[in-house]
Amino acid sequence: MHLPTILSLALAASPLAVSARGTLGFALGARKPDGTCKTVADYAADFDTLKGKAGSTIVRTYAVVDVNVPAYRCEVAATILPAVKAKNFKVILGLWADAQESYDSEKAALQPVLTSEYAPYIYALTTGSESLYRGISAQELLPRIKDTKTSFSKLVPRIGTVDSWNKFQDGTADPILTSGVANFLMVNAFGYWQQQDINNATATYLDDLQQAIGHIQNLVGLNTIEIWNGETGWPGDGGSDYGDAHASTVNAEQFFKTGVCAALAWGVNVFYFEASSEMDMVPHSSRL
Q: What is the mean pLDDT of residues 210-227?
């Protein structure tokens, strides 16, 4: 979905979204539709749109450096941080960590740009994005989260990871949860990627969130770890159907109003995926 479409949904639901206890943020891509890298000015324009149309002042990223299009290496953190500061936004910066060499490269790229000038605008650092879902073990990922904490927590105290709801619910992430290292987690949950009909999508989404958050809190306590919904969403017109989940702007509006707004009202902070379309974005696999 393109940015104006998503923000029109947020605007239509704004009375509920604004009055809710949760915070609405947006996952933000690093590239323009043609695959080239966003500039500081591009990010600043994104922020103006997000704040003006959705009242949102927080975004999240997935990598310090985006190398998905080899011809265009995007220095995400170095480019977004000046815009975040200029527009008084907050950003959750992600470090890609599926392999040790990837993590090492991300850390090396972050070190020179994560300074005291920008630290107040960085809400959290997340090491790994659905790494457990893709088969990385918690024991393998945990040392990378620990290293992020050791390296950066003096400037950014919230440190954690992001994964699919079922990897928190089924115990896969337990070694990370019980280690005491992570104090910030993001749980991804989609009715769409569960192949749900739009009329059952909200129930599935909220149930998945409740299962994941309930497991985390039962294991480590109520206020030990800050938990956000790291991704949710629904594709609009022109998107792909997935099982009984049919892409349409009408369905996206229904899911936003009944699902996203319900989570916000429940007190969950939600990141909508995503605020802009990119040529290299590929579908997730099913969260079943």
A: 96
> What CA–CA distance (Å, rounded) separates 57 from 25?
7
The closest alpha carbon to 272, from 18, 42, 12, 54, belongs to 54
Catalytic residue among 106, 231, 253, 278: 231
pTM: 0.91
Q: Which two three-digit tokens encode residue 100?
A: 């040790």
Calpha distance 198→247 (Å, rounded): 9
Neighbours of 253 (CB within 10 A): 18
Q: How buried is 222 (Cβ within 10 angstroms: 0-12 exposed, 13-18 middle, 19+ buried)? A: exposed
Would you call 75 a catalytic residue per the annotation?
Answer: no
Which parts of 153-256 fold into alpha helices (H)? 165-169, 174-177, 198-220, 249-255
Residue 101 a catalytic site member: no
Q: Tell me which of 75, 101, 130, 274 is the catalytic residue.
A: 130
Cβ neighbours of residue 9 closer than 8 Å, sequence gap 6 or more: 252, 253, 256, 257
Peptide bond into 274 cis (omega under 30): yes
CA 118 vs. chain centroid, Å, equals 20
Residues 6+ apart with CB under 8 A from 137: none
Q: Give me the pLDDT at residue 36, please.
A: 96
Tens-digit pLDDT profile for residues 68-84: 998 999 999 999 999 99
pLDDT above 70 (res 179): yes
Strand partners, 159: 125
Structure-token match 């991704």, residue found: 231
